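Build the 3D complex.
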Amino acid sequence: MHLKALTLRGFKSFASATTLKFEPGITCVVGPNGSGKSNVVDALSWVMGEQGAKSLRGGKMEDVIFAGTTGRPPLGRAEVSLTIDNSDGALPIEYAEVTITRIMFRGGSSEYQINGDTCRLLDIQELLSDSGIGREMHVIVGQGQLDSVLHADPMGRRAFIEEAAGVLKHRKRKEKALRK
Ligand code: ATP
Ligand code: MG
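Done.
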């Protein structure tokens, strides 16, 4: 399984539709300061379900929508699609290629899709958590995060291990069931 492509439309500084294609192996994104490298990484975690504005380096969730520049008006929605090669069947879905999409409108409403079909955030989280891609930090390691793993308290360390072991999904389902 590997990431094949990431398309951003109206996400942060990417006002026009922009597609990045990835080959198996290591990908490096290089560019001058402020050119949008970290925004690409933010788009990856956002499309995989990130719910924290702070993790996305913003003050509120709507900050992911293109805010406009001189000569280009703000946009009303942000959309990111991530295409994953699933020819080895690592994701529990019978498609050799899976595209997950997240759309957010100003005002706050959101939509999620798997291969073009509307779904819930939970469906995307479950699809990914089985594969180990999860939405937590041992996938996207930001500056300072290695420190937080090393200095985690016992509960924090347990959360890392639970996600790696794939039990986090069941815990979330249990919490959801108990809330009903
Ligand atoms: P560095 O090398 O300094 O880490 P970078 O390539 O990682 O830079 P980013 O942090 O990805 O740069 O991009 C920052 C740019 O994105 C800033 O110019 C900022 O104004 C722009 N930006 C962030 N959010 C939005 C938004 N909602 N609308 C328009 N532009 C945005
Ligand atoms: Mg950066």
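The mean pLDDT is 89.
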